[in-house]
Design brief:
The protein is mostly beta strands. Helix content is 11%, strand content 39%. The strands form eight sheets. The protein has a six-stranded antiparallel β-sheet with strand order 21-26-22-23-24-25. A five-stranded antiparallel β-sheet has the order 9-8-7-4-10, with no helix packed on it. The longest helix has 11 residues, at 186-196. The radius of gyration is 19 Å and the shape is globular.
């Protein structure tokens, strides 16, 4: 077998049918598309609730399932292509076409058209929902509940400033593999910000370092991305960096020069790239 295992729906003995003639496998099978019906769900490295979280699925996202292993489904996230295990009970084979997406870092859906009714969630930025009706300030999303309409936008509408989107996560806790308002890592923050701008974005920092065009450090500006070996952030201007990092254990703003010096002193080295997505 070959290919990036993070993005290749194949393992010893089994591969997705679309890879037939590309990779060798004992058996090929068609993946079954399913949709996340939970507010969010970890995508794990193994069929074990204690396994490493590699990524997350958000409500409404599709997951192509190739095999069920115990309580877990093994497959590939449709939105960013990541392969892993998701709890099967969080998925449904009944797919709804999304009409809207969540524009707030986090929000809740209510069981009735009242903010006093039981809440479902929280739903995170970029979650996908299917709106059926609106009553006053609340919109009813099928299978989800009544969501503040001010926290939704039609599919096709996007923010223009990725840095401003990223700033809305300031103070959110650092979480390995996270990409939600409850916690996220460095590449999860960039992915969420670029998704909200309507731009496709891979999951990990080394993959993201191929986005856009290279920029000379002295010419970097707001919205440009900065990469180190295994780390990434977004510039708020030429001198300030916003990033989810394990030093602050949160999304934080710090002078770029201080971040560069601190990260170099930790043995990671100097920035490897500045990119304009």
């Amino acid at each position: 077998m070959s290919g990036d295992p993070r993005l290749t729906l194949a393992r010893p003995g089994l591969a997705t049918a679309s890879l037939q003639g590309v990779l060798r496998a004992d058996r090929f099978a068609e993946a079954s598309p399913m949709q996340l019906v939970a507010p969010m769900a970890p995508l794990r490295a193994a069929a074990d609730p204690a396994a490493e979280q590699l990524d997350q699925l958000l409500a409404g996202e599709l997951f192509d399932v190739l095999e069920i292993e115990g309580a877990f489904a093994w497959g590939q996230a449709r939105r960013d292509g990541y392969v892993g295990f998701v709890e099967a009970e969080a998925l449904s084979g009944d797919q709804l076409a999304p009409t809207h997406w969540v524009t707030a870092p986090t929000t809740f859906a209510f069981a009735e058209a009242s903010i006093r009714s039981p809440a479902f969630g929280p739903l995170s930025l970029n979650a996908l929902v299917t709106v059926a009706e609106q009553r006053g300030p609340l919109a009813r999303a099928v299978r989800v509940g009544w969501i503040p309409a001010a926290h939704l936008a039609p599919v096709g509408w996007n923010f223009t400033d990725a840095a401003a989107v990223a700033e809305r996560f300031l103070g959110a806790p650092y979480l390995w593999g996270g990409r939600s308002g409850l916690g996220l890592d460095c590449s999860g923050l960039l992915q969420q910000a670029l998704y909200a701008r309507g731009q496709a974005c891979p999951r990990d920092a080394d993959q993201q370092a191929a986005l856009g065009e290279p920029v000379a450090p002295g010419e970097a500006r707001r919205g440009d991305l900065v990469f180190w070996r295994g780390h990434a952030g977004i510039l708020l201007d030429q001198t300030r960096l916003l990033h989810a990092n394990a030093h602050h254990m949160a999304v934080a703003i710090e002078p770029l020069s201080e971040a560069v010096a601190r990260i170099a002193a930790a043995g990671v080295g100097e920035p490897t790239a500045f990119r304009r997505p």
